[in-house]
Amino acid sequence: MEKKKEKWEPDNFELEMNTVWSFPDRGSWATHDSKWRGNWSPYIPRNLLLRYSNEGDLVLDQFAGGGTTLVEAKLLNRNIIGIDINSVALERCKEKVNFEWENGGKVYIHKGDARNLDFVPDESIDFICTHPPYANIIQYSEDIEEDLSHCKVPEFLQEMKSVASESNRVLKKGKFCSILMGDTRQKGHVIPISLEVMKIFESSGFRLKEIIIKEQHNCKATGYWKTNSIKYNFLLLAHEYLFVFKK
Ligand SMILES: C[S@@+](CC[C@H](N)C(=O)[O-])C[C@H]1O[C@@H](n2cnc3c(N)ncnc32)[C@H](O)[C@@H]1O
After folding, report:
1. Is 205 in a helix, a strand, or coil?
2. Which residue in 21, 52, 200, 234 is a FRET match for 242, CA 20 to 30 A apart?
3. What is the tens place of the pLDDT at every residue in 98-125?
């Protein structure tokens, strides 16, 4: 059981009201920390869960990672299925949600592949709130074959078609699916992975509801990167895209 924490919810939380989101202080309430590389700020799932789901709903995060979405769902009284391909991630998820919380949502943790959710029935999910790898920009394992963080961009986009179609299958009609994605740069040119993923979700039957720009704060415009940005004349990528789709 996690030790008693002093702060279980953010101070003076206010729902985001426009399409640019920025959380310089990532959020360290409850059991959150930034130890799972590439985890998202808990402010993101908190905002999404509050806007696009209701208490008692069943939420899905099929790229659960370090468990940020699971913790927020439990705190906000949403039930959630957390899936990841990596057993180390799932162990972290179990530790992170192991706290007492009055009226907390139930958390179901399952090892699985986001491309094949056959244990999740059709149209059974009220909200999808997820954060896949951005192709192979950060690798989450060394030798897990199904880990999409080993895929180069073209293969990653191909595999995301299965992720989008499974997301569409399990989500109830009229409900929302949100997904955070980043881009990369190769040989001086930006590769808009996120916009390609957006098109893949649209082709799977989703309708775009929102595009939110999420500012990135781990982008260091100093030293090596500052010098190269000027020397080779490119801008440092400092944002990600958060898409909200409706089925
Ligand atoms: C960006 S991280 C998620 C971080 C999470 N939002 C958090 O805050 O901790 C992406 C996760 O996707 C997982 N993953 C990669 N390929 C997968 C697959 N095919 N099915 C399910 N999970 C996968 C990785 O193991 C990694 O934990």
Report:
1. coil
2. 234
3. 999 999 999 999 999 999 999 999 999 9
Number of domains the chain contains: 1
The finding on whether 126 has its CB within 6 A of some atom of ligand 1 is no
Query: What CATH number did the domain enclosing 77 receive?
Result: 3.40.50.150
Q: Is residue 187 part of a domain?
A: yes
131 CA → ligand 1 middle, Å: 7
* Centre of ligand 1 from the C-alpha of residue 14, in Å: 27
Q: Is residue 11 part of a domain?
A: no
Residue of 155, 116, 106 lying closest to 133 (CA atoms): 155
**If you ran DSSP here, which 8-state letter would residue 116 be given?**
B
Residue 225 lies in a domain: yes
Q: Is residue 181 in a domain?
A: yes
H/E stretch holding 102 reads: none
For ligand 1, whether the C-beta of 53 sits within 6 Å is no
pTM beyond 0.70, yes or no: yes
